[in-house]
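# step 3/5: fold
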Amino acid sequence: MITLEDCEGFCDADPDLVDEIARHEGLAGIAALAQAQAQAQAQAQAQAQAQAQAPRRTDARRVVGRSAACQRLAA
């Protein structure tokens, strides 16, 4: 059987969020911890997805430098 201490050891949910969920939703410790962990994972996935979709900037000097080098090699 999994205990609350086991869940706390495996999860990295914010303890303040767990307490808030437990009070607001009227959930037992393990259920509140599971919900807080699910929310944290969803937020982390959303942030990772947003970063992956963000346009990447390139250094214009490197791009120009490569173009000039490629032109010299092609000549």
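# step 4/5: annotate
DSSP finds four helices and no strands in the chain.
# step 5/5: archive (pending)
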